[in-house]
Amino acid sequence: MKNVTDSFVSLGHWPSAGSFGLNTDILATNLINLSVVLGVLIFFGKGVLSDLLDNRKNRILNTIRNSEELRGGAVELLEKARARLRKMEIEADQFRVNGYSEIEREKWNLINSTSNILEQLENYKNETIYFEQQRAINQVRLRVFQQALQGALGTLNRCLTNELHLRTISANIGMFGAMKEITD
C-alpha cells in the first residue's frame, strides 16, 4: 500500500516540463486510469445510462399498465360470460320445466283425445247396431206383412164372390157419399 500512496505523492513532484517519464508502477497507473475512466463514464454516461434506465422503466410500467388493462378487460369479459352462463342455465331450467310441463299437458291431451275418439267410436258402433236391428226388424215386419197380405188375398180370392164384391163396393160408395154430405 505504501507504493500506492507514494504514487499519488509523487505526482506532486514531477520533474519540470521538458522531460517526460514513464511510470512503471502498474498498480498506481491502473488505479489512476480506472478512476479517470470511471469519472468520464460517470460524467458522460450518467445521462445515457439514466435515459436507458428511464426508457426501460417506462416500458416496464407501460407493460404493467397494459397488462392491468388487459386483466381488467379479461375480468370484465369473464364476469359477462359468467352472467351469460347463469342466464343460459336459468333459461335451460325454464325450458326443461316448460318442456316437462308441455310433455305432461300433451300426454293428457292425447289421453283425453283418445278417450273421446274411443267414446265416439263406441257411440257409432251402438248406432250402427241399433240401425241394423231396426233394419232387420223392418225387414221382418215387411216379410210378415207381405205374407199376411198374401194370405188375406188368398183368403179373399177363395171366399169372395162377385155378389159379395158388388155389395162391398156399394157399401163403400155409400159411406163416401155420407161423408161428403157431412163435410159440405
UniProtKB/TrEMBL annotation:
One of its GO terms (molecular function) is proton-transporting ATP synthase activity, rotational mechanism. Keywords: ATP synthesis, CF(0), Chloroplast, Hydrogen ion transport, Ion transport, Membrane, Plastid, Thylakoid, Transmembrane, Transmembrane helix, Transport. GO terms for cellular component: chloroplast thylakoid membrane; proton-transporting ATP synthase complex. The keyword Transferase does not apply. InterPro entries: ATP_synth_b/b'su_bac/chlpt. The chain crosses the membrane at residues 26-49. The keyword Membrane applies. It comes from the Eukaryota. It is found in: Membrane; Plastid, Chloroplast thylakoid membrane. It is a single-pass membrane protein. It holds the Pfam family ATP-synt_B. Belongs to the ATPase B chain family. F-type ATPases have 2 components, F(1) - the catalytic core - and F(0) - the membrane proton channel. F(1) has five subunits: alpha(3), beta(3), gamma(1), delta(1), epsilon(1). F(0) has four main subunits: a(1), b(1), b'(1) and c(10-14). The alpha and beta chains form an alternating ring which encloses part of the gamma chain. F(1) is attached to F(0) by a central stalk formed by the gamma and epsilon chains, while a peripheral stalk is formed by the delta, b and b' chains. F(1)F(0) ATP synthase produces ATP from ADP in the presence of a proton or sodium gradient. F-type ATPases consist of two structural domains, F(1) containing the extramembraneous catalytic core and F(0) containing the membrane proton channel, linked together by a central stalk and a peripheral stalk. During catalysis, ATP synthesis in the catalytic domain of F(1) is coupled via a rotary mechanism of the central stalk subunits to proton translocation. Component of the F(0) channel, it forms part of the peripheral stalk, linking F(1) to F(0). In plastids the F-type ATPase is also known as CF(1)CF(0). This is ATP synthase subunit b, chloroplastic. It comes from Pellacalyx yunnanensis.
